Amino acid sequence: MTSEFERSGNDNAMRIVDLYCLLVLALGVSSARGQQVATAENVRPTTKSATHATSGADLSLHRAVEAIDRVLIISIDGLRPDLLVRAQVPNVRALCAAGSYTFWAETTPEAYTLPCHVSMLTGVSAEKHGVTWNEYIEHSHPNVPTLFEIAKKAGYSTAMATGKMKFIVFARPGALDDFYYPHEEPVSDEEVAVHAAALLRKHRPNVMFVHLPGVDTVGHEFGWGTDEQIAATERADQAVGRIRETLSALNLEASTLVILTADHGGAEKSHEMLDPRSHFIPWIAVGPGVRKGFDLTRLGDRTIRIEDTFPTACAFLGLAPGNECQGRAVLEVLEPAN
């Protein structure tokens, strides 16, 4: 499948290179010259196990950054990275400046919302997690544990706010302390952000996932890259701002790793397999101990994949991702050891 993807993407590859350069310029984010690249030898060592860990956790593991004991993952559905060139997205720009980022992260070959998000939160391919459908189905869950389930077994609190009903797939009994999903669609990113903020205030969860649906919804109606979708991207940015303001108001920023990413991109009014415009997504990490304004594409052959989000969250929470995990924790985001 990879070779077919490469063949089908040759005509678009050079365009994407140009778009990436424009994107970095438009966001006004750059890395310091001569900044050391993290390796297994020079990343900051860990020193403390999860404070909320119970007998369900592997206490031989330690959190990647002592100060961080919660992870917030925000996914903007359908956010093709180059949409950020035209949109006014001050909150995304602030995240890039405050953290480590790439606009060349890769999603799964399927490039559909539900399989991609399950890969994001389990660290494995659709072949392994078994969620090959992309619609609302009750009482159907992944074949492997999700981040929520692993976190709960370790004594962490969990919550979720999503903009699509089909995310019921993550609500296996006992996995979530609280969650919101709409009973009718579509809903706005603002509405999801309001519910997410309420969950933050109520529970201050150690693991939280927020899904913003608007960019994808507008893409299917009007097309990717249209003026309408640019406006939707700006509304998603405002929703991100509301969520971060809530974190700040609760004094949680100093203990939280925020990962902002997406499930897929798109072109015309869809997101097809093997289309590079569907394949690339942004991936941004921000938090204490995370290097600032660092472009992860500087890491040479290191490619960030959607499956890497799960083990990255596990590493920051001191959790074992399990033998099934196919992703790789992005520890390169850590500030180099002195």
| Strand content bin | 5-15%
Helix proportion: 25-40%
Distance from N terminus to C terminus (CA atoms, Å) equals 43 Å
Secondary-structure element order, N to C: HEHHEHHHEEHEHHEHEEH
- State the secondary-structure class: alpha/beta
The CATH C-level name is: Alpha Beta
How many independent structural domains?
A: 1
Give a written overview of the molecule.
The chain is built from 11 helices and 8 strands. The chain has one domain: Alkaline Phosphatase, subunit A (3-Layer(aba) Sandwich), CATH 3.40.720. Helix content is 36%, strand content 12%. An 8-stranded mixed beta sheet has the order 4-3-5-1-6-7-2-8, sandwiched between helices. The N terminus is likely disordered. 50% of the residues are buried. Helix 8 packs antiparallel against helix 9.
Strand and helix layout:
Elements: H1 2-27, E1 70-76, H2 83-86, H3 90-98, E2 100-106, H4 113-122, H5 126-129, H6 147-153, E3 158-161, E4 178-180, H7 189-203, E5 207-212, H8 214-222, H9 227-249, E6 256-261, H10 276-279, E7 280-286, E8 294-295, H11 309-317
Parallel strand pairs: 1-5, 1-6, 2-8, 3-4, 3-5
Antiparallel strand pairs: 2-7, 6-7
Question: What descriptors fit this protein?
Answer:
globular, Alkaline Phosphatase, subunit A, 338 residues, 11 helices, alpha/beta, eight-stranded mixed β-sheet
